[in-house]
Design goal:
six-stranded mixed beta sheet, Alpha-Beta Plaits, Rossmann fold, 19% strand, alpha/beta, 3 domains
Length: 402
């Protein structure tokens, strides 16, 4: 196998996987267009059966296996979407699959991978440790290792995302694509630049994991920490993919965690669709730098929708706080009968919804004959919240943001 691929390989991949993966829609978003000033088109790869683009490349790679290789089985390393893509299509093709995942991989991802019939091995505290073990297993069993990104057939399969986008909207001016290891953007850029050399391809990484930016700049990988975009939290991108990115990608944007959270919420509230952190990264980049995209036809790759339910709930609640629609107010009251009822009446008359309340006495710093009451309030907007604070203050109740 060569260590490169061409647009012809992407077209061949499209023919090979046709009918076995979902041809997801590329749809305009009028509301996101109004918010950003660009003409926004979204590629909904979260509508794949495994809720991620990853199955495109995994399938294209496995279709190229010889009969002997199929009999020996495949091994992959992944903490999520690649694992499910390999497991899903290995099951369909009747190929034995072993997936090595780090020990702290969320149970839901482990369970979904096992549901596709794969053997899951939990090993190592990091992706690097899991990867080393996966390579060792593949060598020991004579199985084929399916790399998540640094493989020409995998990248060519991912590039079918770009082919479909340009088939649906031929006059797109910019494609915005998340970057982890680089397989998706390498494939998309190869297909897009072949179809239209003038199209701009912009990559997006989380600022906590700028692996591709560092690799192209000649620096040592220096990344880490928690990120909601774990799907692109790759410290060191592929050798093949970085060459393609260096040749064909016009710019790489770095985005912070709050902007990614905002993008997740906008997809849910506006498009009524679930995006994982990595899947929302392209929209986050447009929100973060609107001048770059204003007035242009912009295609966003929503690459996946596998996000933990509790994490999604937390992101939504944090967004309400950022908008000023939810706040925790600490109100000091006289510790006498009727005071709490008076405060709640003021809040109710102001249109506030009390989500939670805690009456503090022993743990209060107020005078002994007073008490502090913490209210978690929800309002329609920040102005209504401020009006309630003003009403409480004017009624003689000191208020602070807790």
């Amino acid at each position: 196998m060569t260590d490169t691929f061409t647009a012809a390989d992407v077209r061949a991949a499209a023919a090979a996987i046709a009918g076995a993966v979902v041809r997801t829609k590329t749809a305009p978003s009028l509301t996101l267009s109004r918010l950003t000033g660009a003409q926004v088109f979204v590629k909904f790869e979260n509508h794949q059966f495994t809720a991620s683009f990853k199955e495109r490349g995994a399938l294209n790679r496995m279709l190229a296996l010889t009969a002997d290789e199929r009999a020996r089985g495949v091994v992959a390393m992944s903490a999520g979407n690649h694992a499910q893509g390999v497991a899903c299509h290995a099951q369909r093709l009747e190929i034995a699959a072993t997936i090595v995942m780090p020990r702290d991989t969320p149970n839901i991802k482990v369970r979904h991978t096992m549901d596709f019939g794969a053997r899951v091995v939990l090993h190592g505290a990091t992706l690097a440790e899991a990867s080393a073990h996966a390579h060792a297993l593949a060598a020991e069993r004579g199985a084929v290792f399916i790399h998540p990104y640094d493989d020409p057939l995998v990248a060519a399969g991912q590039g079918t995302v770009g082919l479909e986008m340009l088939a649906d909207v031929p006059d797109l001016e910019v494609l915005v694509v998340p970057i982890g290891g680089g397989g998706l953007i390498a494939g998309v850029a190869t297909a897009a630049k072949d179809a239209n050399p003038d199209i701009q391809v912009i990559g997006v990484q989380t600022r906590r994991y700028p692996g591709m930016v560092q690799a192209l700049g000649g620096g040592e990988p220096a990344a880490g920490g928690g990120t909601i975009a774990e799907g692109i939290a790759v410290k060191e991108p592929g050798a093949m993919t970085r060459r393609v990115v260096a040749d064909l990608v016009d710019h790489i944007a770095l985005v912070d965690e709050p902007r990614i959270e905002q993008a997740i919420c906008l997809y849910l509230m506006i498009e009524k669709t679930v995006a994982e952190g990595a899947g929302a990264a392209a929209l986050a980049a447009v929100l973060d730098d609107p001048d770059r995209f204003r007035g242009r036809k912009v295609g966003l790759v929503l690459s996946g929708g596998n996000i933990d339910q509790r994490l999604l709930a937390t992101v939504l609640m944090r967004d309400l706080v950022r908008q000023g629609r939810m706040a925790r107010l600490r109100v000091t009251v006289s510790d006498t009968p009727g005071e709490l009822a008076h405060v709640t009446r003021i809040i109710g008359e102001g249109g506030g919804n009390i989500v939670d309340v805690a009456h503090l006495r022993a743990f209060s710093h107020a005078p002994a004959k007073s008490a502090e009451v913490d209210f978690a309030l929800e309002t329609r907007d920040a102005d209504q919240m401020e009006a309630i604070v003003t009403a409480l203050t004017q009624a003689g109740y000191p208020v602070s943001r807790a």
